[in-house]
Each structure stands twice: as C-alpha cells, then as structure tokens.
Amino acid sequence: MSKKLLVVDDEQSILTLLQYNLEQAGFEVISAMDGEEGLEKALDNRPDLIVLDLMLPKMDGIEVCKHLRQQKVDVPILMLTAKDDEFDKVLGLELGADDYMTKPFSPREVIARIKAILRRTQISESSQTGKDDNEHDKLVIGELNILPEHYEAYFADERLELTPKEFELLLYLARNKGRVLTRDQLLSAVWNYDFAGDTRIVDVHISHLREKIEKNTKKPTYIKTIRGLGYKLEGPKLDE
Hints:
single chain, alpha/beta, Rossmann fold, Arc Repressor Mutant, subunit A, 2 domains, five-stranded parallel beta sheet, 8 helices, 42% helix, 20% strand, elongated
C-alpha cells in the first residue's frame, strides 16, 4: 500500500514538481497552497508524512507545525525553507519538525530524505506491533524507563510525549549509557545521513529531552554535556 504524503507550498511550480516526482516514486500525494488549508488537510487525511514550506500565506509552516503537535498529531514533518537562516531551522525543529531542507533542492534529494524518514517511522511501527517484543530489552536508568519494543518511554511513572526523533535519540543514548558520544556520532546514528556538520540539530533535540526528564535543565542529572566532545547519558548519583 502506497504511503500518503501531504505537500504544502504556495509556489505552484514547486508544488507541481514535487507532486509529479513523488507520484512517479509511488507515493499518493495530496496538496495545499496555504497554511490553513494544509492544517485542515493534515487533520482530515492523516498523511504518513508532510512536506511543509516555512513561508506560507494565512498561516506559516511554524504555526502549522505547532498546531499539529499541540493536537498530538505526530506525523513526520519535513520542513522546507528558502532561507539559509539558522534561527528558522532551529525553531522549526524545536516545534516538532523531524527534518528540514533548504531551497533550492532536487526532487531526487527530497525523495531520498522522505524515504529515510519513513524507514525510521516504519521501524517504530513494527516495534509497536510487538514483533520484537522482549521485556529484557527494557532499559531502566534511575526514574527513566524505556521500552523499545513498544516505542514508549516513562519518567517517574509518567509517559513521555516524544517525537519519533526524540525517542530514537534517547534510546541511543540509553543503549550507550556512560559513553561519551560526539554530535557527529549522534547525527550518524540517529539521523543516518549526512547533515553537512549541522550539529545544532543534535543540540536542539538534547534540549527537548532535558526539558522532559530533568528536574533542573541547567544542572542536568541524566544527559550530561561533555565540553568540547558531546553528550553522555548516565544514572543519577545518590546525592543528586
């Protein structure tokens, strides 16, 4: 069964180009040309992935992304931006986008990026079906409990609301408990393709995780920054 994609862009030429190439690649494609229409179609059609332009009339991509995440719609979002602006990219990721691409881009590059995101999503869905159901795979670190087979994580017995990328990052850190992992290592392991050294993506997601599992984000107990190197996850000390 083909995956359903929603493409939201106010430039007709880009919309037509993407729709044609994505359909040729075997995807079912629906489209919208402004943010309000895009949000409505996302809620009505529940696509498998959204390609979302940042600059849109009526409601920009940031607002669309924010509304979807507030309504607990965790569909993967690939954000497009014509701006080579670090702030825009980081803000989009902070609000729940899974990835971003800067215009101009080739349709082949977009398709490759979409397939990479959907592969990760498919892995999470297969985990939820119980195909890898193994209680021994559960990870417990302090008050943090991670159940890879169910794609769930809990902290202090409360289920964490995590995006797919946040979960994958947390799981990778936990499976490498006590090891210092560089930003480049995390990019390779969690995002599994080249981000041309844009390690700010890792920092943004680490910040998100800390907000959800740390009592004091300025003095983290679990996810420690190793200056000049990267990050490591470890259990809380008795006096923390």
